[in-house]
Amino acid sequence: MHQTKRDKIIIFPSHQQIKAAAYWLQKYHPANPDLEYALNLVILGKIVPDKTGELVAISYKPSINQKVTPDNIQGAMMINSQNTQTSFESSNQITTKILFSLVKKCGLPKKIITSSQVKQWIRPLMLEHYQIEREYDQLVMICTQLSEIKDNSKGRWATLQDKPALIAYEQAYITERGSGNPNRDWNSLIKKRQIAVLEYSGKIASVVRYNPTANYALVVAPFTFPEFRRQGLARQLLAFLAKELLSEYAVLKLWVDKENIPAIALYCSLNFQQIGSCYTGYFSK
User: Fold this and answer.
1) In angstroms, what CA-CA distances link 9 with 60, 75, 200?
2) Which residue blocks in 108-162 are alpha helix, DSSP H?
3) Which of 158, 232, 242, 274 is a Cys-bridge partner for 195, taking CB atoms 3.0 to 4.6 Å apart?
4) How far apart (Å, rounded) are the C-alpha atoms in residues 43 and 51?
């Protein structure tokens, strides 16, 4: 534990403390789905930071009993094991500076994901030491009810026979969006029914994935191959996914670039509503 005049910083917090941080995000900072999802992976035991190499830190104001609670947490962050991505949230500028000092000690943070509130504090700190390669402001949106999306839904869960098309999807997504994982475990995603597809003229035309958490499903990486766009296929597939997931989860959540007006209109047509905004920045020395 590292103590400052204002906050205490816990590195490698306990399971209960991470649960408190996840609830703090959900209650006070819902516009940071990436960090909330990462902490959920720790809670579920899918990531074990002191064994797998991730760094998790929580900043809090000590109370009389010294316990970490959602009401005294000031900030939280998680750096992945390769130090290629940092998910970061804070309640104020001072805590941001304190946690950033830990980020800097780990070396160049190639990718920072945070809320728009924290962007105003952490971006100047990053620019003192690093250069921006690219950056995006994004809307965070949620969907809580089906209503009309029961209609015009079409799609299915991916099968092992779809793997060549899924590999092509990942490659196309990386080429167009600049991020992704060429070594993704398709077998696991297919087995867990976390990836849905829509066929058109005998080919996989549109793909979307989701990540489960304890409180919501996080919709990620929707993509329609260029030759099949502007035909309403993405909406049909997302409607299928929403119909399936809202029978199990109370909330669906996603984020989308603010400049992607067509995608925002699509999500709004499916009853997604904005709850905040977040920021993704890529940096180099």
Assistant:
1) 7, 9, 53
2) 116-129
3) 158
4) 14
Amino acid (1-letter code) at residue 32: N
* Residues 78, 58: Cα–Cα separation, whole Å: 9
pLDDT tens readout for residues 8-41: 999 989 999 999 999 999 899 989 989 999 999 9
List, in sequence order, every residue forming a beta bridge with 273; answer none if it has no partner. Answer: 142
Amino acid letter, residue 3: Q
**What would the DSSP string read from start to end of 222-253?**
EEE-GGG-SSSHHHHHHHHHHHHHTTT-S-EE
* Structural domain boundaries in the chain: 2-136, 145-250
Question: What is the pTM assigned to this prediction?
Answer: 0.87
- Rounded Cα–Cα distance for residues 104 and 179 (Å): 23
pLDDT in tens, 57-115: 999 998 777 789 999 999 999 999 888 899 999 999 999 999 999 999 999 999 999 99
12: which 2 tokens? 């490698």
Q: How many contiguous H segments (helices) and E segments (strands) does the chain have?
A: 9, 13
Please say whether the dihedral angle defined by the alpha carbons of residues 33, 116, 87 and 78, taken in this order, is positive or negative: negative
Architecture of the domain spanning 2-136: 3-Layer(aba) Sandwich (3.40)
Residue at 97: amino acid letter: K
Q: Name the fold adopted by 145-250.
A: Aminopeptidase (3.40.630)
